[in-house]
Amino acid sequence: MEAIGPDTIDVWSWKLDIPTSDVGMSIALLSLDECVRTIHFVHDRDRRRFVAARTGMRVILARYLGVSPEAIGFDYGDNGKPSVTISGYHPIHFNLSHSADLAVLAVSDCYELGIDIEEIRFLKEDIAKWFFSRREYQTLRSLPAEHYLDGFYRCWTRKEAFIKAHGAGLSLPLDSFDVTLDTSSQARLERLEGDPDAPEKWMMLELSTPINFAGAVVVSSGGHEVSLRYRREDIRQMVNLASRM
Known about the structure:
245 residues; CATH 3.90.470.20; 11 strands
């Protein structure tokens, strides 16, 4: 079994575009409810990417737990955050995000966390005013025009990662907390309404991503400094190895 420790967050990444011929082998590793979810996708590409994301997550988590990928059960809290339901195992904290053809999975054996990755795409309208706090929106509007899009996605991914780490889901108002977003500031939670000590308890880290992507990880480390350990995988190799277990 793999171990991580209190100073490190493992960040796994893998591509999601798998051939149709590999979908059947991947689906065999999923649970019944995951298989049912694949039925509701309109586009085959989206269905294959969902299968590749869930399969990759199962295969990677199985390495930390020392079980087969299909043996892992997930429990979903009131706000939809998943946790592993295997009795007798040390708790493992994880969070999955995927956008376009890329998936990322953050794993810790010590801290609650959240991760988000987004493909940077042109914005058809100014949606920041609906999703960012007043302070964040003002900072975004003050950026030079050529930095606006990058600033938007920095803010978006940091807020999304914090919401996922916090565990409250969309019940946490988006204007109840502020994050940094300009290039001159380190990724950081600046304010959480009702908790003046929150910026010291939560650590926010910018992901190293491919061109045209933005991402962030947020960790409830209680002020303990952590670093990211990047690990890449190939979905076809993962599935082939898992099928032999």
